[in-house]
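Support request, please re-run this one:
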Amino acid sequence: MRKTSSLLCALIALVFVVTLFWLPPMGEAQRRARLAFSGGPDGGTFQYFSNAIASRLSKNLPNIDLSNMASAGSVENLRRVNSGDADFGIVYAGDLYLALNGKLTGDTRIYANNYSMAYLYGAPAQLLVLEGSGIKSVQELAGKRVAVGPAGSGAAASAQRYFTSVGLWDKFTPEYIGYSQGASALGDKLIDAMWVFAGFPNASVIQAAASNRIRLLDLVAYGKEKGFFDDYPFYTEVTIPAGTYQGVDYDVLSIQDAAIWTAGKHVSDEIVYGALNDIYSEEGLKYMYSITTAAKAMTMEDGLMGIATPVHPAAAKFWQEKGLTLTDMQKLP
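Re-run finished. Output below.
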C-alpha cells in the first residue's frame, strides 16, 4: 500500500513538473488577445497595408497577436468587421458611409459596428479623352461612349455615382471594359472617354498617353455645380499634378475616395489607441513607407481625411491629442 502511494505521489509530481515546463505562464496567455485584420486579394494594395500593420503590431504590442486575412476587398472587410469575424479591416470611406445608411448596392442592411481609425491613402478618379476629340469638359460627354471599368468593379460603381449625381449617366453609353482594353479602345477611337479609378500615375493612362495626345478633364467644378459633394460627402478633392502624364502639362482637379483603417465596435480602447500610437510613430511610418509607396499618404495632418462616419472613441482621443478636430459626421451619435 505504501509502495502504491509513493508511486502515485511521484507520478503527480512528474506531471506537475512537465506541465510547468511545457505550458506558457497563464498570465502571458491571458494578456495576448488573438485578433484578425481583414485585408484584400493577394498582391493588392489593401493586402500590403493589412499584412504590414498586422506584422508590426504583433511584434510591438505585448497584448495582441494580430493575424492577416486575405479577402475580396472593401465590402467583405466591412461585413467581417461588422459581424466580429475580423477585428480590423481596410474599407473605402464610400462603402462605410453607404453601409451605415443602408445604401450599399443591392443591400439595404445598416452596418453600424464599423468604426473608422485613420486615413491610409486615396483612390482618385481620372477621366481622359483624346486631345483631338474637342471634348474639354465633363458635360460634353452627353451622347458619347465612355469606358467606366468592368461591370461590378469599384471603378464602375464610382463612375455611376459621379455621372448620376451630375445628371449624365443616362445621357451617354457606358462601356464596361477594363483599363488596358479601354486605353486601346480610346486610341482606336472606339470610345470617346475613359474613366480610371486608381492611384496615379496609372499604367493604362501612361499607355494611352504614349500612343496619343490625351487630355484629363476637371471633375470638381461640374461636381460642385451639380451638388456631387453634397450627395457623396465621403469624396474629397485631389490634384493630379502637371507632368504626371506625357503631354498633360497642367494640374487637374479630380475626386477621390479614401481607404480607411477600421476597427470593430467591440475592439477595446486600449488596443485601438496602442495600434495608432505605434503605426503613427516616426518609426512606424518609416516602416509603412518601406512596404508600399502608397503609405506616403499617411501623415498626422491627414489622419482623419475623407472619413464621413463615426470614429472609434480611442481613435478620436488619439487624433485630438495630435491637434485634429472631428467633424460632426466623425463623432459618435
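The CA atoms of residues 124 and 256 lie 4 Å apart. The beta strands are 33-38, 64-69, 88-92, 114-130, 145-147, 173-175, 193-197, 214-216, 236-240, 252-264.
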